[in-house]
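Researcher: Go.
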Amino acid sequence: PGMVLNVRASAAGDGKIKLRWKREPHAKAYIVRMSVDNLPGPPQWTDEKPSFRCSLIITDLTPGKMYYFVVQAINQLGIGDMSEIANARCM
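Model: Structure:
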């Protein structure tokens, strides 16, 4: 599948961040990878969540922390490239 485009992250209430992205036409599902690493250099992706939609609400996050996300499309041929990084600070 191709790269997922237009990934957006926004605070969605206490301990929640909402992610949205443009549908990848060849995707059967998506993998969302998350990082809280804010050190110099690329984020270390430490958590992944599946989604069959083009949006996902991540819960149980720490208020005040910045979170980083990438999304990858999945189909019968494998996993696509990582999207651009989206980030949001949890409220």
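Model: The two ends are 34 Å apart (CA to CA).
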